[in-house]
Structure formats: structure tokens, C-alpha cells
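User: Design a sequence. Structure:
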């Protein structure tokens, strides 16, 4: 709020003009309008009016002393004041230069008019520099806080990353340990199953189990926890499935072995000499010889449906005669011999033979196979 001015020494008309100008500045301040140089103009008019009213001025030495004090005031400001408000510093230096020029004789009025402007400029310069210093301080504080916050978050992220890595290492170790333990439980069973499948004539099953076992071992060796656990699980599942397959292979092998023994006894009973035998995959091969020199090689195999099958290869029998295709092959004596052998097997072990057939057997010789009977075949 601008105060009213009254002085008995100043003319009333001049004081009224100053008061009117002061009121106008107050209205402009209320409207937040820029004042520009209006304040300096008003200050100059007040100084001139005061000098006229009192008819006295400041002595040159006093003006020099005042100037010296103002220059010391500028020089004594903080070192960064000029950098913070370079325009204000330049304004102060310009005004001081003008004030210095007004210290001589006859410039009293001009000196007094400039004095207030210099004082105002110095005050404004100090205030502007202080405000900007405070702003820079706040910005620096904000930057410091942001830096600290970023560092805190970086530490948190690093801590979380390290914790995640440790958790993953623990998980990997736990999974690998579980996989190794489970593999250790089934490894011997798997190796036995591989050997058993090969022995029973199923190389495909042996390879499937062996491959699953190798996959689990390789994944453990490579430290691949998920792959190792899956491979061990696959092996466990395969071994469960393989149990029934191995049981069926055992049954088929037992049936072949029993049939081979029964056949061997029956052939010896018919005067054959047993000359040797061996296993060939899922089949048993037996070799016999008659006193006449004829040889019989018999393969004891298993059909796809699990039923046993005898396949004969005969060399040297005189009654095996090949005729034109219309009549077919005739082997009556050999057929009777094998029929007796099959009958003896049935009496000994309960096997029910089917029809005996051979390569080239004519249609007229085909006999009706008994219902449910197993097929028996002779081939040359």
C-alpha cells in the first residue's frame, strides 16, 4: 500500500501531483501490471521536489563517500551474485558509473535523483541473485534426492536380481537333486529291462528304454534341470508301460521254450537226432537229422496275435516231389510224420495243432482248421 505524502515545505500542487501519480502506481500494482521505469521516474520527482523544498544539497565529499559505500556494497555481495544475475550486475555497474559522474559540482540534483535508483538496483540485484541461488539450491536438492532415489532403486533392483538368481540356483539344485534321486531309483530297473527285452527278442523295446535312460543321464550331466526331470518322468512312465510288454514277452518266450522242448522230445521219439539249436531274436531254431540223412530245421516263432508257430525247412526227404502247379506238391510220408509229431506234442503239453500246410500244397489237400486251433506250417 502506497502512503500519502504531505509536506509543509513543498507546494501543494506538486504534492497533489505526486500523490495522484502514487495512487495510479498503486492501482497498477493491484492489477499486477508491469511498472517498468515508473517507479524510478516517481523517485526522481520526489528527490527534485525535496531538494527544491529544502534548498540544500549534499557536499561533493559526502557524495563521494556515499558512492564509495555503494560500491563497497556491490563488491561485498556473494561471489556468485554476478553469475546468478548478470543483467542485474550490469545494471548496477551502469548506474554506479552514472552516479560517479554526478559527484562533481553542480550535479547535486542529478546525484540525488540517481541515488535512489542505484540503491534500488543494488537491492534488486541482491534479491534476484539470492532468489536464483535458492532456486538452484532447490534444484540441486531435488537432483540429490532424485539421485538418491535412483541409487536406492538400483540397490533394490540389484538385491532383487541377486535374490532371484539365488532362488533360481536353489531351484535348479533342488530339481537336479530330485531328478538324480529318481533316476537312481529306476536306473538299475531300466538297465535290466533293456537286457531283458533284448533277451526276449524285442530290440525295439530295448532301444526305447535305453534311449530314455540316456536322455535322463545326458540332461543331468548338462545340468539342465527341467529337461532332466522330464526325461526321468518319461523313463518312469515308459518302465511302467514296459512291464506289461515284458510280461507278454515272457509268456511268449515261455510258450516258445516249452513248445521247443516238447518238439524236441517228439522228434527224438520219431527217431530224429537233435543236432543243435539257438535263439534268433524272438524265435528258437532247432535242427534235427533222420537216420536217412534228411535234415529238419524247425523255427519256433510267435504270430502277431501271440499264438506259437512252427516253420519247418526240410532237405533230403525222398517223398517230397514237386509236380506241375495243377497237382501241387506231394509229401505224404513227411506230412504223416509231422502229424504224428504234432499229435505227440499235443499229448505231452496240451498244444492243439492246427492244419499242417506246406508250400505248394494243392487245394484238394486243404483240411478244415479246427476252431481255436493254432496254425502249424511246413515250408521248404
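Assistant: Done.
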Amino acid at each position: 500500500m502506497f502512503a500519502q505524502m504531505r509536506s509543509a515545505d513543498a507546494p501543494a500542487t506538486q504534492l497533489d501531483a505526486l500523490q495522484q501519480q502514487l495512487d495510479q502506481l498503486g492501482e497498477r500494482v493491484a492489477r499486477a501490471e508491469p511498472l517498468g521505469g515508473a517507479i524510478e521516474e516517481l523517485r526522481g520527482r520526489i528527490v527534485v521536489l525535496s531538494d527544491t523544498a529544502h534548498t540544500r544539497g549534499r557536499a561533493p565529499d559526502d557524495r563521494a563517500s556515499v558512492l564509495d559505500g555503494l560500491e563497497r556494497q556491490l563488491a561485498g555481495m556473494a561471489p556468485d551474485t554476478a553469475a546468478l544475475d548478470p543483467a542485474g550486475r550490469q545494471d548496477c555497474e551502469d548506474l554506479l558509473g552514472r552516479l560517479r559522474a554526478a559527484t562533481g559540482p553542480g550535479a547535486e540534483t542529478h546525484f540525488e535523483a540517481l541515488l535512489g535508483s542505484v540503491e534500488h538496483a543494488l537491492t534488486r540485484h541482491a534479491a534476484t541473485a539470492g532468489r536464483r541461488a535458492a532456486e538452484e539450491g532447490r534444484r540441486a536438492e531435488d537432483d540429490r534426492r532424485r539421485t538418491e532415489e535412483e541409487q536406492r532403486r538400483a540397490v533394490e533392483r540389484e538385491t532383487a536380481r541377486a535374490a532371484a538368481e539365488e532362488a533360481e540356483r536353489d531351484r535348479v539344485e533342488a530339481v537336479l537333486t530330485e531328478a538324480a534321486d529318481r533316476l537312481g531309483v529306476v536306473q538299475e530297473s531300466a538297465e535290466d529291462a533293456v537286457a531283458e527285452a533284448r533277451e526276449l527278442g524285442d530290440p525295439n523295446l530295448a532301444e526305447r528304454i535305453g534311449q530314455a535312460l540316456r536322455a535322463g543321464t545326458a540332461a543331468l550331466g548338462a545340468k539342465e534341470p527341467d529337461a532332466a526331470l522330464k526325461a526321468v518322468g518319461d523313463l518312469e512312465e515308459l518302465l511302467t508301460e514296459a512291464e506289461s510288454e515284458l510280461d507278454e514277452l515272457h509268456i511268449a518266450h515261455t510258450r516258445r521254450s516249452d513248445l521247443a522242448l516238447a518238439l524236441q522230445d517228439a522228434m527224438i521219439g520219431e527217431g530224429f537226432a537233435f543236432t543243435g539249436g539257438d535263439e534268433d531274436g524272438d524265435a528258437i531254431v532247432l535242427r534235427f537229422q533222420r537216420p536217412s540223412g534228411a535234415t529238419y530245421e524247425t523255427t519256433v516263432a510267435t504270430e502277431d496275435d501271440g499264438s506259437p508257430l512252427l516253420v519247418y525247412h526240410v532237405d533230403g526227404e525222398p517223398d517230397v516231389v514237386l509236380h506241375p502247379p495243377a497237382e501241387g506238391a506231394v509229401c505224404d510220408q513227411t506230412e504223416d510224420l509231422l502229424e504224428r509229431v504234432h499229435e505227440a506234442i499235443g499229448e505231452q503239453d496240451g498244444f492243439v495243432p492246427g492244419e499242417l500246410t506246406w508250400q505248394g500244397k494243392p487245394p484238394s489237400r486243404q483240411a478244415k482248421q479246427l476252431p481255436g486251433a493254432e496254425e502249424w506250417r511246413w515250408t521248404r
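The first strand starts at residue 273 and ends at 280. Residues 253-378 form one domain.
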